[in-house]
Amino acid sequence: MNSVKEIAKEVKLISGQNVFACYQCGRCSSACPMTEEMDLLPNQIIRLVQMSDDAVLSSVTPWICASCLDCTIRCPRGIDVAKVMEAIRQLSIRRGIEKREELVRNFKEMDELPQILLVSAFRKYTG
Amino acid sequence: MILLGKYRYMYYPGCTLKGWAKDLETSTLKVCEILGIDLIELDRWYCCGGVFELSDNLMRHLGAVRSLIKAEEKSKEIGTGDLVTICSMCYNVLGRISFQLKKEDIEKINFFMDDEKDYSGKIRVKHFLEVLKEYGFNKIRNYVDEQMGIKVAPYYGCTLLRPEEIGIDDSQKPRIMEELLEAIGMDPVSFPMQTVCCGSYNSARGIKAVETLRKKILESAKREGAELIVTSCPLCKYNLKEAMYFTELMEMALGGARHG
Ligand code: SF4
Ligand code: SF4
Prior knowledge:
Chain A is mainly α.
């Protein structure tokens, strides 16, 4: 298993994104519609990935990210922030640090929900 | 041999239009019948996966590629490479596969998928709104009997517009739904939050997870005087609670009786 120090490298390998290009302007976070539910803002996540800080793996933020790409189209440094969020989710799963159970515990009756909701939640919460 | 008209397209419904969002399919097919647009459903199709896989896991694209392969087979019979989706999320996933997936990724998928023909990349994925635009909003105008003048706010959300390579219109200032609404006798109202995400699959954690966002979006529309919000996405409709499919409004506005 890789050491915690490798987070930046692993995120880069999974997402293809260079987080070191980020200069912390905060535009991603100001565009993000989900920040009220997050414990860390998208720009803070990027900063922590730069530092390979394992706090990104215990943050709920990557799991709240809706993959809406509003951050991605606004980043002046061309970073696909949504891709970084997904890479962190995958990394957490690969390392066995998951937030899934906590996230889906409120599942209602399945047949009341649009199929697309179940399919996309299943996909995002499993990596 | 099926007899087809000038406006003919292959049609990918996706799971939700056969289930939770039946109204979206029924109203679309009704609109097509009135306008003389042929949507031919693929003989076989698979779930698109709902959301595009962003990182390095190509396995997640198999379902969508399989549907595109089925479309390539069907396209020979129908004589068009245009594949139409109505659900915004299906549009996004299939669109991204067909426009964005790197050539070597497709090669890799083809290589490992033994039980299907190879995907050669000839399918053009289109959203139904683009089909209507191609058909001509001006032509649609002829089918409208009455200027209802309802103040309608079009809600785009994210998947019709982002990423920009597959967006059906400008990612921050789209107009396509406004133009359509105007053509069917409505009074379109653009609003600041019309391209903000509805929270998407976050509502799998319970509808409360998207409540704050829903309120903000609805208020943003109401502040501009909207009486009604329309969308093309079943998940947006579920999360916003107070939205209608744009095709349902079209069906109402086009009536159909006179042109039968
Ligand atoms: S928008 Fe880009 S550069 Fe600015 S803080 Fe976010 S990731 Fe960094
Ligand atoms: S993709 Fe995720 S992080 Fe980016 S704006 Fe959307 S919800 Fe926020």
